[in-house]
Amino acid sequence: VAGRRPLIAGNWKMNIDHLHAIALVQKVAWTLKDAGHDFDDVEVAVFPPFTDLRSVQSLVAADHLHIRYGAQDLSTHDEGAYTGEISGAFLARLDCDYVIVGHSERRAYHHEDDAVVAAKAQAALRHGLVPVICVGETAEDLEQQGPAAVPVAQLAAVLDGIADRLGDEAAEIVVAYEPVWAIGSGHAATPGQAQQVIGRLRETIAERLAGPLGADRADRLADATRILYGGSVAVGNVAGFLAEPDIDGALVGGASLDARSFADIARFR
Ligand code: PEP
């Protein structure tokens, strides 16, 4: 973790409508508050469906909750004739801090390639949102190329696409390593496996950005960037991941839909 503030992020996927979103966010917030959770120590964020964001925004503002939130996707475009798309500008106006880009489900079901993911990360940064850049190998990739090759290549491609924006000292990104074989399977990677890949991802940030940004800025960004593990994270395994030197948090799918489980994950210490 090395000075980086841990981030526990809940990806709700296409679950929980706006009515239930209020109840879930309230329950997470109250459970954490009752447990004396220090949000400055471990940051907590949720990623509801688009249609829930306005409700979440109102609740967070009215109750002064310390829960942060973001969207699960955004358009590469800022506005215009793009039916069904959501602009990063709209997300920024809803006070989103984050937006997920390149989740494996979008890559698989919506054919998003590295160029699209890079354009989405660009769009996020253009609107002052922190992109949570998801990378990860399938079981087939793992068998054919080992664990790190595909996630490293995916991250390198996105970094190439956003390097000009990362020259800005205020620019921030989050990376999530999510082996596709571990997502929703109940079979998480081991902390050692995740650390091995995440360590390589951190090196990739320094190496890939040294050219465009200079070695100093690239090293600083590699050091400051939070890299999360995702894939069947649960109350029983989260602490093992966070004990690794390069793992700075978790992106949680299934277990983020239950307030008690998600709050317990956030209380991993
Ligand atoms: C995810 O899809 O981002 C994820 C981590 O899911 P799960 O925790 O359910 O494996």
TrEMBL record:
Substrate binds at residues 11-13, 184, 232, 253-254. InterPro entries: Aldolase_TIM, TIM_sf, TrioseP_Isoase_bac/euk, Triosephosphate_isomerase, Triosephosphate_isomerase_AS. Keywords: Cytoplasm, Gluconeogenesis, Glycolysis, Isomerase. Pathway: Carbohydrate degradation; glycolysis; D-glyceraldehyde 3-phosphate from glycerone phosphate: step 1/1; Carbohydrate biosynthesis; gluconeogenesis. Gene3D superfamilies: Aldolase class I. It is found in: Cytoplasm. GO terms for molecular function: triose-phosphate isomerase activity. It is an enzyme of class 5 (isomerase). One of its GO terms (biological process) is gluconeogenesis. One of its GO terms (cellular component) is cytosol. It catalyses: D-glyceraldehyde 3-phosphate = dihydroxyacetone phosphate. The active site is at residues 103, 178. Its EC number is 5.3.1.1. Homodimer. Belongs to the triosephosphate isomerase family. PANTHER family: TRIOSEPHOSPHATE ISOMERASE (PTHR21139:SF42). Involved in the gluconeogenesis. Catalyzes stereospecifically the conversion of dihydroxyacetone phosphate (DHAP) to D-glyceraldehyde-3-phosphate (G3P). This is Triosephosphate isomerase. It comes from Pseudoclavibacter caeni. The gene is tpiA.
